[in-house]
Specification:
It is a single chain. The protein has a single domain, classed as YVTN repeat-like/Quinoprotein amine dehydrogenase (Methylamine Dehydrogenase, Chain H), CATH 2.130.10. About 0% of the residues lie in helices and about 55% in strands. The protein has no helices and 28 strands. The protein has a 4-stranded antiparallel β-sheet with strand order 1-2-3-28, with no helix packed on it. The protein has a 4-stranded antiparallel β-sheet with strand order 4-5-6-7, with no helix packed on it. A hairpin with a 6-residue loop joins strand 22 and strand 23. The protein is globular and about 55 Å long. The N and C termini lie close together (about 10 Å).
């Protein structure tokens, strides 16, 4: 049900999954009309007993508000669906690369490049405005306000029309509102939380384990790209995902590779981080996490990443890979409810 902006230990457990082709049967809504974006790149897969909608290529965000799915992405890609299968494209401005999506106060909100914000009451008709000189990334609604993340801090708004710069101290990539607080991810090993979306408390001392592969050394880069909140068993957790680097010698040259990282916390203050070393020495960073309850007895978390890497877990320690029919970077995942 979450977004993302950017972009893992091989599993010994059996893979239980099935895949489907493009969710949009014809790929394009609007025929040959060049002003209507293609819907190709929205797919579905089965993780365990759950159907997951995921976005690749231009799609950067997929959310569900309880009655409607909303997907958004680059090149003014916007689409809505009532069932997650049949999608209708919408046009906002033909220009903006949308990075974040949220719903609150009876309003759908998109955030994206050029500091652009778009609002809609139904997901079909949109009004847009420029509210910042910096690009906007993730957006969330909580505590009677919208909070948008950017490279220069956060902006807040009660109605998604009038926005106020609240903090310029951190470079956030995404954020959520859950369990009575905002939790944000960012570059430079930034994890932070806030009760009002204005004053933020950074998390310090988050340690990332070093690589296990022989001949590799930990690098200095740690970036967090997405965060979700949900229940597993009888307890609820925050889950953040991102990437870190490592170096190794290849053909006598020092080479950098990237590993995915997953952090788990019950309170957003203390996090336990696990490192998942990238397959084939490729970029193993994770882009999006969906963490939700399948039923009251068991929850499921789904992570997506570069090179069609999707995994799911019901205990946040064992992650089962999902086989996908196409090779693509996954930028957004949303579990169908």
């Amino acid at each position: 049900m979450k977004t993302r902006i950017f972009f893992a230990i091989s599993c010994a457990c059996a893979v239980l999954c099935s895949c489907s082709k493009d969710v949009v049967s014809q790929g394009v809504w609007g025929g040959t009309d060049p002003t209507v974006p293609s819907l190709s790149g929205l797919y579905s897969a089965t993780a365990g007993s759950n159907t997951v909608i995921y976005g690749s290529d231009k799609w950067k965000s997929v959310i569900y508000d309880g009655s409607m799915y909303l997907a958004a992405g680059d090149g003014d890609a916007v689409a809505i669906s009532e069932d997650g299968k049949t999608w209708t494209a919408a046009v906002v401005d033909n220009i903006t690369d949308w990075k974040g999506a949220a719903y609150g106060n009876d309003t759908y909100v998109l955030t994206g490049g050029y500091g652009m914000v778009a609002t809609s009451a139904d997901g079909k008709d949109w009004a847009k405005s420029s509210v910042s000189s910096a690009p906007l990334y993730g957006v969330a609604y909580g505590a009677s306000k919208f909070v948008a993340a950017s490279a220069t801090g956060v902006l807040t708004s009660a109605d998604a029309k009038e926005w106020t710069a609240a903090s310029g101290e951190y470079s956030f990539t995404n954020l959520i509102y859950a369990n009575n607080q905002f939790v944000a991810t960012g570059l430079g090993n930034v994890l932070a939380y806030s009760t009002d979306g204005t004053a933020w408390t950074p998390v310090t001392g988050t340690s990332v384990p070093g690589p296990q592969a022989e001949g590799t050394e930990a690098g200095s880069t740690v970036s967090w790209y997405d965060v979700a909140y949900g229940q597993v068993g009888t307890a609820s957790y925050y889950v953040a995902v991102g990437m870190t680097d490592r170096t190794y010698t290849f053909n006598t040259k020092k080479t950098t590779a990237y590993d995915g990282i997953i952090a788990v916390s019950s309170d957003a203050e203390t996090w336990t981080v696990t490192r998942y070393e990238g397959k084939r020495n490729d970029d193993g960073s994770f882009q999006n996490v969906i963490f939700t309850s399948v039923d009251i007895n068991a929850g499921i978390a789904v992570v997506g990443g570069a090179e069609d890497d999707m995994r799911y877990s019901t205990d946040l320690s064992r992650w089962t890979p999902v086989e996908l029919p196409e090779d693509a970077d996954i930028f957004a995942v949303c579990i169908v409810e």
